[in-house]
Amino acid sequence: MTPKNKLVVPIALAAIALTGCTTSPRMLESVTWTPCDASRPGARCDVNVVASSTGRYRCDIGRFDVVPEYTEFRGGRPVNVRFSLPEGLQFCSADGPALKSGSLSGSYGQVYESFGADKDDGSRASFDATKSCRSFWIWNWGNVGAGTEHEYLIRFRDRDGRQCTIDPFFKNG
What we know:
Strands 1, 5, 7, 8, 10, 12, 13 and 14 form an 8-stranded mixed beta sheet that branches. Strands 3-4-2-6-11-9 form a 6-stranded mixed beta sheet, with no helix packed on it. The chain contains 2 helices and 14 strands. Strand 3 (57-59) and strand 4 (62-67) form a beta hairpin. By secondary structure, it is mainly β. The longest helix is centred in the first third of the chain and has 11 residues, at 8-18. It has helices spanning 3-6, 8-18; strands at 34-37, 44-51, 57-59, 62-67, 70-74, 79-84, 89-92, 96-99, 111-117, 133-134, 136-141, 149-158, 163-166, 169-172. It has a single domain (33-172), classed as Cupredoxins -  blue copper proteins (Immunoglobulin-like).
């Protein structure tokens, strides 16, 4: 590698840092998918954002892991997905999970309901869509197309309003 070529990687990384982008894990062929049984009607799979000093995802408000990071819905039926956050973090206004625009192929109709919830069971104190912040987020996921993989992101914020975005994965089965 010539001295000129040795500068390419550090310059590219500096450009990413200066634009405010963060690096995050990407899909790999060798990942281990965590199964979630979606075979029975009303099945629920939990996705938990966990604060961790060594977390794989990093933003201005901390480091986080997603447990499970790679979720495979098994059973071929629609499933309720409940997203939870650590104490002190919340889903507000335009926050919550969302399919990434680059993974929309085959994603049409996967999320057929998406809403913030006040309680672990997905219930809401009211159906007021303008309520500012909620502790949980619920997706009703279609689980259509066995083997299709979906990259999504989770947006949330702290009580000071600083936002964080992380991006784990789903796989239908």
